[in-house]
Structure formats: structure tokens, C-alpha cells
Design a protein that fits this description.
The complex is a heterodimer.
Chain A (H helix, E strand, L loop, with lengths): L16 H17 L2 H17 L10 H27 L6 H4 L22 H17 L2 H12 L4 H8 L3 H24 L6 H5 L3
Chain B lengths: L2 H10 L2 H10 L7 H13 L1 H22 L9 H14 L1
The chains are: A mainly alpha, B mainly alpha.
The structure holds zinc ion.
The site of zinc ion (ZN) has 6 residues of chain B, from helix 2 and helix 4.
Amino acid sequence: MPEQPATNLTTSDPATWVDAHGDILFRYAVKRVRDRETAEELVQETLLAALQNRDSFSGKSAEQTWFISILRNKIVDHIRKRARERDRFEPTPDETYFDAKFAKKGKWSDAPVGWSGSNLSPDELREFRAALDLCADKLPPALAHVFSLRELDQMDSDSICKVLSITPTNLWTRLHRMRITLRECLEVHWLGDAKTTPAAAKEGC
Amino acid sequence: MNLLKKIQFVLNVNCRQASQLLSDKSERPLAGYERAALRFHLFVCGPCRKYALFLLILRDVMMRISAEPNDAVHLSHESRSRIKATLEAHS
Ligand SMILES: [Zn+2]
């Protein structure tokens, strides 16, 4: 039997994985699924899958890159599964959703106000993120999924359509819906008082 | 869409359509008449300019969030031990 070449074609000892990579994988997952418990499960599934497929590790990429690619697939599977469960209860968003957001002749019912200057100070940024966190949690599942994939994972449209098995037009409608929903929520939770300034509310189409 | 339809679209585009185009702009290349309609609408519509600004801020913040390391986040001790035990059981 020919001896295995003593290169880095094999993984390190699995007993060291959790300490060496656990936090990195956990951070990657928690950022995308926004839930610690799910993220922990995904890390465990990832390391388990890595253990069972140790032979397929080619050593071409760093070990951590390999773990992350497995984790990424697990995350996408997780979101796909959740999206499928949700579709049984909530039909695909239809155009009527927008009827409440826009008045006659397609004008905003609740016009965006108070947004000025795109350069946020560190303080503003921190507050914005806190509000965004809250608003993202309130998104209905169909929109939360596209938020995770598009905004948090920065995945491109084509890949998201494949993951969720939806058409591009459907995805674009959902993204639009997700963005106007976030806008409304952030105006309340981030801009807060600024929104009620009468001067700001006057500006019309 | 024929030329007349396109011209009509550019001149009559409303907030509902303009905000969809603003969102679509980050997803697909807009057609020439769509870009023209958007530019024309933003020129005359304050609320949609605000919305465009909001989208810019959102994109900027999301890019920062997805790029930054969240170093303060750690696996809990319990899950650490649990995962180690699971790995050992399957080794
Ligand atoms: Zn408008």
C-alpha cells in the first residue's frame, strides 16, 4: 500500500476544530441567520459534515475556507427550508401589498421624510444599526429571507432566485417590499421625532 | 414597448413605479427609458429623493455590517462542549 504523502492534504485533528475555528464560524453564521441558537446548530452541523467528509478535503484551500464553504451551504439550506415552510402558510406577495403604501395615482401614502445626508457620524451609525436590528426582526418571513441573503450575505439576484426557487420579478418585488417596510420602520425608530417636524412633512410630489 | 409608450412612461411615472425602479437599480441594469423616467421623477419629487437617500444609507450600512468582523461574539461554553462531545462521538 503506497504511503500517504505527508503534505497538508489532511485536516488537522478534529478535537482541535472547535477551539481553532468555532468562534469564526459562529460569527459568520450569527450574522446571517440572526439567531444564536440556530447559528450554534449550524456550526455543529458544519463541523460534523466536515468530519464525515474529511477525505474530500483537498488541501487546496485553507482548512478554515473549507469549513466556511460548508457552513455557507448549510445556511443557504436552512433559509431555503424555512422559506419553503413559510410558503405553505403565506402565499407569494402580490401587488395588493403596495396598495396600502401608495395612494391614488401611485403617490406615497406616507411619504419618506427626514432623510438627509448619507454620511452618518459614528454615533448616528450606532443608533441606525440598533434600529435596523429591531426593524429587521419585525420583517415578515418572506422579506426576512431576502434581507438575509441580499443585504447581509450580499448574494447576487441570480443566486437568491435559485436558493428560493422564485422568479427574478418576484425577487425584485420582495426586495422592494422589504426596503419600503424597513424605511417606514426606521423612520419611526431611528428618525423618531425628526419625522414629526411639520416643515419636513410639507414637501410634496 | 414602443416609443410612444416609453415617452408616456417617462412623463407619467409615479412614486410607486419610481421607488420600484430605485430598488431595481441595485438588482439589474435599467433600460434607457427607465433611467430617464427615474431621473425625471427624482427631479420633481422630494419624497422620492428622500427615499433614494434612504436606500443609499441602507446599502452603505449593510455593506459595512457584512464586511466587518463581529469579534465580540463567541460560542457559549455550553455549546462549545456540546459540539466537542458530538464530534468525539462521531470520530
Ligand atoms: Zn415620487
